[in-house]
Fold this sequence. Notes:
The complex is a heterodimer. Chain A has a domain at 4-258 and 474-481: Alpha-Beta Complex (Amidase signature (AS) enzymes), CATH 3.90.1300.10. Helices cover 38% and strands 13% of the residues of chain A. Chain A is built from 15 helices and 11 strands. In chain A, strand 7 (261-265), helix 8 (275-290) and strand 8 form a beta-alpha-beta unit. Chain B is mainly alpha-helical. Chain B has a domain at 1-44: Histone, subunit A (Orthogonal Bundle), CATH 1.10.20.60. Chain B has 3 helices and 2 strands, in the order αααββ. Chain B has helices at 4-13, 20-37, 72-76, and strands spanning 82-83, 86-87. Chain B has a two-stranded antiparallel ribbon with strand order 1-2. In chain B, a hairpin with a 2-residue loop joins strand 1 (82-83) and strand 2. The longest helix of chain B has 18 residues, at 20-37. The two termini of chain B are 36 Å apart.
Amino acid sequence: MLELYYLTAHELHDLLVKKEISAEEICRAVFDRIDAVEDKIKAYVTLTRDKAFARAREIDRKIAAGEEVPPLAGIPVAIKDNMCTCGVRTTCSSKILYNFVPPYNATVVEKLEAAGTVMMGKTNMDEFAMGSSTENSGFFVTANPWDPDRVPGGSSGGSAAAVAAGEAITALGSDTGGSIRQPAAFCGVVGLKPTYGAVSRYGLVAFASSLDQIGPFTRDVTDCALMLNAICGHDPLDSTSAPRDIPDFTSYLRNDVKGLKIGVPREYMGEGIDPAVKEIIGQAIKLLASLGAEIDETTLPHSRYALPTYYLIAPAEASSNLARYDGVRYGYRAEDARDVVDMFMKTRSQGFGPEVKRRIMLGTYALSAGYYDAYYLKALKVRTLIKQDFDRAFEKFDVLLAPTAPSPAFKRGEKTGDPLQMYMSDICTLAVNLAGIPGISIPAGFVDGLPVGMQLIGKPFGEGTLLRVAYTFEQHTDYHRRRPSL
Amino acid sequence: MITIKDVEHVALLARLELSDEEKQMYAKQLNAILEYAQMLNELNTDDIPPTAHVLPLKNVWREDEVGEHLPPEEVLANAPETEGQFFKVPRIV
C-alpha cells in the first residue's frame, strides 16, 4: 500500500470508517511528510499543526462514539493564503498583509469545517494571485515536486505542490485566469475551476471580482466531486453567488462517455503549443473516441483576443480592489510619513511587489479619463464575443477538450524578466474565466518526467459532465496514480 | 505611447510612489502590453454590448435586518495604530 499521505480522500475515508486508522494517524502521517519535504518544496506560508491535531482528535471521538461522519471528515486540506481563516494569518503572500489575522472565516472555510476536514495550513501563492509560477510570492518561491528546479505553476502553486508532494490530501485554490488549472497541470493533480457563482467568494481576498472563483485540488476525480459537494452552494453573503440547487456531484462519476459530443477547438492545438503536449492531448482524444465519445474539431474564433482582453479587465478590477490597502485598518503601514497621503503612498509602494504594482498601474491607466473607452470598455465588448464563441460551440458539443497549458512546468526564472511571456502560459485557460464557465485539468501524460494536463471545459453549471468525462478517462489511465519521488 | 509623465500621473492616481528606475521600467512594460492590446482594434465592436459580469443577476436585495457585528476590539485588532475605538492616521491637514 502507498504511504497514508499519498492516498486519496475516499481511500482514507474507507480506512477511517473501518477503524483501520484514526484521523490523528492521518494527520500525523501528513505532518511527518511536511517535516520531511517542506524544506525542499516550500508549499506553506503558515502551518496550523496544533489546531489540526485538536480537530483530528475531535473527529476520532465522533467515530468512536459511533457517529456517522461525512466523506471528508478527518481529511487534511491545505488552503490558499487568500482565503480568510479566523484567527489564522492570511497574507496573500504579500508584505502588505504579512500580519493580517482575519476575525472571520471565508464561507468555503466554514463549509469545509462543517464537512469535517482538517486544515494543515495556508499555502504560498503569487502575491494577490497575480502570476503563473508562484515566483511572485512576496515571501519565497515554491518548488515543483516533480523537479525542484521548475515552478509549480501559479498562482495557486503552494496548494498544487502540497497535494502533489503528499503535504495535504486535498486543497483549495482560486482561479482568475487559470490559477487552479495551470498549477494542477504542472504538478500532476486534478484541479477544477467551477462556474462563476457556483462557489461563494465571501472571505476570498478579491483580485478581479468578475473572474475569481474558488475550486479544489485533489489526487483524483472522485475526490474532486466530494470537494465540490462540500464547497458549492448559494451564499447570501456573496451577491454574485448563484441561487441554484446543487446536485450530488458524485452521481456523475460514471465510467461512460458513449454518445457524448466533445469538441476540440483548433485554436488551442495550434501555434504556441509544445508539440509534445499536442501529442499527449492527441492520445487522450483517441482514447475517449475509442470509449464511444463523438469527437470533432471546432472553433473559438476570438481565442487570440482572450489574452489582451484579460490583461485589461483583470488589472482594471484589481486596481479598484487593491485600493483598500492603505495602512489604516490592517496590514503593513510605512513609518515616517509626513501626512496621510504620504503614508498611503509609502505604505503601498513598500508593501506591494513589482507584479502587483505593474497590474495596478496598468488597470488604473485602462480606467483613467480618456482611456476608459479605448481600453476597458473595448475589452468588455470583446469579452462578449469570446463568450459568444463558447455559447456557439456548446450548441453542438457537451464538452470542449484542450491542453491546460502550452507546455509542461518551466524552469524557475525562465519567464520572470518578460511579463508578456509569463502571461502567455495562461493562453489555454484565460478565456474560460472571461466566459464564466467551468474547467477541469486532469493528469493526461508525462513529457520527460513532467506531468501534462488535459483541460475539459463545460457549459455553465456543467461541472457534472466534466466530472463524468474526467472520471471515465481516469478509469482507463494511471497518470493520476503516479507520485513524484522526493 | 506612455511617457514618464503619464506613468507619474497614473502612479499618483493609484497612490504609488515610484523610484526613477521603476518609472522607466513600467513605462517600457506598459507600452509593450498596451501595444499588444492594440490587437483588439482589429475587431469592430460598435454593436456589441459589453460584458462586465457573466451571471444574469441584477440588484440582489435582502431584508434590512439587524444582524450580528464584530466587537469593536476585534475590528481594531489588525490596525497599525488606534486610539480608543478609532483607527488612528497621520495628520490630514
